[in-house]
Design brief:
With 334 residues, this protein is mainly alpha-helical. Helices cover 47% and strands 6% of the residues. Helix 4 runs parallel beside helix 6.
Length: 334
């Protein structure tokens, strides 16, 4: 959900280096302390980095995002979680200060939207998914929860716990009612782009699940465990739809002709790491089995050629027709 240039997007779509792996930490659900976050990001300015290094900060040390120098809640939360992990590993006071600055911003900048408290609405839209300015994201809400709970445990300040509980409120409401959950029959999807029609982006869904899992460990709100459990069951049923047999898909959208874009290598690597964490968090070995299979996909030269072929096939839509976007007619396959 980060703005990228066309050159960056093309570089991500046609990787030359296939060695990318994501650092991750398995979840110990028996521990009282949440500990460092489960995934690690790269802050560099390369095609696969997050461009935090050298990014502008406001007067309080909060990350600003180019080019408009705006507050981007997702990036702030991820930056906070990375700094917290650095502090846990090294006790670096600079990492601690950076974490505190981001956590305070997330605590103090929640707003009510459509009668729902604890929201981080975006000042900009996400045109590919038909998301207009002011949209919410389950991924952002979930990552903010994970930041706020770690600040709560670090400082024993109940204001952070209260903010984490408020940040979970949008999960109680359907997307059509202003929330971030998409419910259809027995399914409960958690939407990174919370708008209709749904796109069911995989990595954002898993980050949202992690936030709910963290909150269920720190607070006994029964509804949190219920939403987490029902959505986890949905993911278990629907995960095969993200597997094309030689790579993973980023979402469940298909164009009118049935074409589906593969995940870029960056997000394929995220998927592998996220599923391994989710296996430890849920106790469900099927997630580890899928992660191992998806990791093996990236080691195949034939699969790498398929990734390039899929990226090449998507170029006309990217440059001209936009047929792989929601405004261009793409819809979920479920």
């Amino acid at each position: 959900m980060v703005a990228t240039t066309s050159l960056q997007q093309i570089a991500r779509a046609f990787p030359l280096d296939w060695s990318m792996r994501r650092r991750y930490r398995l979840c110990d659900t028996t521990a009282r302390e949440l500990g460092s976050y489960y995934i690690r990001w790269a802050g560099d300015r390369g095609a696969l980095g997050e461009w935090w290094d050298g990014a502008p900060l406001d007067g309080d040390g909060v990350l600003l995002s180019r080019p408009q120098r705006v507050y981007h809640a997702t990036r702030i939360a991820q930056y906070a979680l990375e700094q917290h992990a650095r502090f846990c590993e090294t006790s670096d006071p600079e990492a601690a200060r950076a974490f505190v600055a981001q956590a305070r911003w997330l605590r103090d900048n929640q707003v009510s939207r459509n009668g729902i408290p604890g929201c981080y609405p975006f000042a900009f839209g996400w045109p590919a998914y038909g998301a207009k300015p002011g949209f919410l994201s389950a991924m952002t809400q979930g990552e903010a929860i994970s930041v706020l709970l770690r600040a709560y445990q670090l400082f024993d300040d109940s204001r952070y716990l209260q903010a984490a509980k408020l940040a979970a409120t949008p999960f109680r409401r359907d997307v059509v009612d202003g929330g971030v959950a998409w419910r259809a029959r027995e399914d409960v999807f958690l939407e990174e782009a919370a708008c209709a029609p749904p796109s069911h982006i995989l990595n954002g869904w898993i980050y949202a699940l992690w936030g709910l899992s963290d909150l269920a460990r720190c607070w006994d709100g029964a509804w949190v465990a219920d939403v987490y459990g029902r959505s986890l069951q949905t993911l278990g049923r629907r995960l095969p739809l993200y597997d094309c047999g030689h790579w993973s898909y980023y979402n469940l959208l298909a164009s009118r002709t049935g074409f589906r874009k593969f995940a870029t290598l960056k997000y394929h690597a995220f998927h592998v790491a996220q599923l391994r964490v989710l296996a430890s968090m849920s106790g469900e070995p099927a997630y580890e089995a899928t992660a191992a299979r998806w990791e093996s996909y990236a080691n195949s030269f034939a699969n790498r050629a398929r990734v390039w072929g899929n990226a090449a096939a998507s170029l006309p839509a990217y440059l001209l027709t936009h047929a792989d976007t929601v405004p261009g007619g793409a819809r979920s396959i479920v």
